[in-house]
Amino acid sequence: MPTDASKLKLEIAVPNDPTNTLLNQLKTFSRYITIRPLVKSFELSKYFFVRIRYVECIKSTEHAAVPSEPANISGRIVAFFRLISSYFVLLIIVNELTTMTMNIKKLAADNKGFLFFLFAMILMRSALADWYRVPSSSMYPNLLEGDTVICNRLAYDLKVPFTDIILTHLGEPQRGDIVTFSSPEDGTRLVKRLIAVPGDVVEMRDERLFINGVAASLQAPSANDVQHLTPSREYDGKQVVLKESLHSLQHTIIVMPERGALRDFAPIKVPVGQYMMLGDNRDNSRDSRYIGLVNRELITGRVQHLLYSLDVDHYYLPRMDRFGARV
User: Fold this and answer.
1) Cα distance between residue 121 and residue 113, in whole Å
2) How far is CA 242 from the centre of its chain?
3) Hey, how many other C-beta atoms are within 10 angstroms of the C-beta on 134?
4) Host H or E run for residue 7
5) Which residues contact 108 (CB under 8 A, 6 or more apart)?
6) In 10 A of CB 24, how many CB atoms?
7) Cα separation, 36 vs 75, whole angstroms
8) What is the model's pTM?
9) Rounded to a whole number, what is the distance in angstroms from the first to the last CA of the chain?
10) Annotated catalytic, 192?
11) Pairing mode of beta strands 178-182, 299-311
């Protein structure tokens, strides 16, 4: 059956090019050429191995004219020069990538000490201690937006670095602890106050907590406790600061009587391995009332001290009185 001129398509495989950067550049030089099928493999350098394969693509037609010999010779000459051009382009690109790889290796070799220090810092933040910038006003009046807190990751559990896998328990979370944890809703890192531990029966009636049938007392705080209210840019309605006391819970909270919020929920018994978290800014916090109870493995540490604090409403000026303060 007569056929038209054979068409050869350039196919390129680059094993050490996971992002396909080199492959995409080489594809621009792929052309249909009229030479015999050819398979060629070669090593351009010790870093890259490139395989170029020309695959014959034959298109059959009943009425196609057989090309003349001069036309075939001319087409093969053109194809030869295209092939040579592709090889040169290939060499240039791979040489650039090889040089870049060697520079990276040299940079790593020259900075082993710094890279080790950086890895140790990342490991420490994952397994020992961490810092966390408070992003919202949900813990006012005790933690302010712009505070950076120190998180003790060894307060409760020893975990495999970079995971939530608990190797052993080192302590027990207590009511009243301020903790950081990953939200069971979407994994966002949050900071709240631990209100109830496994086995507690907890409920809320008109802002008042009841734990195991005992009601928390809510009293007007001293003048020293009324220092930080929710910023007016966020809420300009009425705010009331109260001192909440119940067993080991001793802290100030903010309520917003004029704001719609979840102020009541029925009694719930906290299951084993779970904890209830609430924000101190009760009517301005997305906590266990909305996202559910928090599993122990999601708790990332305990907060007891501030590292530093910047006032986000006044050009990020430092709040010097909060540097290193205990919370």
Assistant:
1) 12
2) 36
3) 22
4) strand 7-13
5) 115
6) 12
7) 11
8) 0.66
9) 89
10) yes
11) antiparallel
- Catalytic one among 6, 86, 159, 192? 192
Catalytic residue among 137, 138, 183, 288: 138
Which backbone phi and psi does 130 adopt, to 5 degrees? -145, 165
Contact 176, 249 (CB under 8 A): yes
Single-letter code of the amino acid located at 65: A
Structure tokens at 157: 């559990």
Alpha helices in 171-266 (DSSP H): none
What contacts 294, CB < 8 A, 6 or more positions away?
A: 181, 184, 274, 275, 276, 277, 288
On whether the CB atoms of residues 192 and 301 are closer than 8 A, the answer is no
* Separation of alpha carbons 243 and 254, rounded Å: 9
CB atoms < 10 A from the CB of 79, how many?
Answer: 19
Q: Helix, strand, coil % (nearest 5) of the chain?
A: 25, 35, 40
Could you give the CA distance from residue 282 to residue 301 in angstroms, rounded to a whole number?
A: 22
- Distance of alpha carbon 27 from alpha carbon 126, whole angstroms: 43
Q: Are 189 and 251 in contact (CB under 8 A)?
A: no
Mean pLDDT per segment of 10 residues, for the chain of length 327 residues?
39 48 48 35 37 38 45 67 76 78 76 73 74 94 95 93 91 96 95 97 95 93 75 92 88 93 95 97 96 96 95 93 93
Tell me which residue has tokens 């052309």. 31
CA pair distance 56, 54, nearest whole angstrom: 7
